Amino acid sequence: MSPSNFESHKSIIRNKVWSQLHNVALPDSRFHHDYSSFIADFVGSSRANDFLASLPTYQNAEVLFIAPDNCIQELRFRALKDGKTVLVTTYGIRRGFWLLDPLVISGEKWEIASMLDGMEKHGRHVTLEEISSSLKRIDLMITGTGAINCQGLRFGKGHGFFDLEWAMLYTIGVVDASTRTIAVVHECQVLDEKLVGEEWDTGCDFIVTNKRVIEVAGTSRAN
């Protein structure tokens, strides 16, 4: 498949999923139902996050990267309540990485800190150098996405933010090919489409929906 046809096919897939997502997605205060601008929260995301929190890979993790997506805001809050350190980016990585440490942020502020409007007030801005020196290792990376197939290949908004976040953290040595990755989506966002990913695509080891957990074998990693 040529690059132009590949991108066209991915666009068709996104639009097909977005038409179904409109029935279960929660509108964003800034972008309403413009799924090309944000990753939506959805009916059933709490159940999906419960499934995720039951996984040993989450329970054993001490430091998590959790993307700034609407569907996993509740998970960021939960992780802080579970005593885990959370690394998150600002939306679009515009203002870099922020560290949410439950030992530093008081408990009554954890929920606000887990939100995009609150993390910059209660979290700590960290450079890549500071991440490398202070965290040493990120145990788990979690993201939302526009759609994903059963082989763990994501079809996001088309901006590649999670791939870039992975690449940045890989470059400084805090993640590697053994670092587990999880996508949280509504069941309608899981596809049977089979596509060959591009070299920078970062696949997911687990797909967690409001109905089930799918474990993926042989997931590709951008590096």
Automatic annotation (TrEMBL):
<dbReference type="InterPro" id="IPR037171">
    <property type="entry name" value="NagB/RpiA_transferase-like"/>
</dbReference>
<protein>
    <submittedName>
        <fullName>Nagb/rpia/CoA transferase-like protein</fullName>
    </submittedName>
</protein>
<dbReference type="InterPro" id="IPR002698">
    <property type="entry name" value="FTHF_cligase"/>
</dbReference>
<dbReference type="GO" id="GO:0005737">
    <property type="term" value="C:cytoplasm"/>
</dbReference>
<keyword id="KW-0808">Transferase</keyword>
<dbReference type="Pfam" id="PF01812">
    <property type="entry name" value="5-FTHF_cyc-lig"/>
</dbReference>
<dbReference type="GO" id="GO:0016740">
    <property type="term" value="F:transferase activity"/>
</dbReference>
<dbReference type="InterPro" id="IPR024185">
    <property type="entry name" value="FTHF_cligase-like_sf"/>
</dbReference>
